[in-house]
Amino acid sequence: MSNRLKATDAHPRRWISEESINGAPPQEDHGQRYEFLLVAPPGLVEAIAGVIAAEVRPSIAAREDRWQLWNIEETGARLGRSERWIRERVRRGDLPHVKLDGGALAFDPEDVRRFAASRRVPASSTARQPASE
Q: Residue 9 and residue 32: Cα distance in Å, rounded?
């Protein structure tokens, strides 16, 4: 098996040796876009994935540890709505919330995300026709 990188642009296809990538001076690309396919030895991708996963896991765990409820102002800011609008949705029973001591409203970020996702409108299957001149 050869250790070559395949570089492609619109046309023609080019094959570039590993040595030319590592040792060649940079060349002008003349606006061409290249995609590279690297043939890796067996096990290399899994080893790299393991290292990346070990680096990412602590940051995900740290984010989960920082979990907290959003107040009405934060919730309104994330939804792009006023506090009045948020209070109205709570009153109607549309927006899940937590009622804290003293009656303050708080919102679980996941509940707010689900609320927004449930109101997502898919793109229309019919394309708009341009206005005739």
A: 6
Q: Which of 86, 89, 91 is nearest to 72 (CA)?
A: 86
How far apart, in whole angstroms, are the C-alpha atoms of residue 94 and residue 116? Answer: 11
Write the pLDDT tens digit of every residue in 87-113: 999 999 999 999 998 889 999 999 999
How far apart, in whole angstroms, are the C-alpha atoms of residue 62 and residue 107?
Answer: 20
pTM passes above 0.70: no
Neighbours of 107 (CB within 10 A): 23
Give yes or no for residue 11 having a pLDDT over 50: no
Cα-based distances in Å from 101 to 95, 105, 106 = 19, 9, 11
Residue 32 three-state SS? coil
Domain extent at residue 103: 70-118
Any domain includes 128: no
| Residue carrying the six token digits 């540890």 | 65
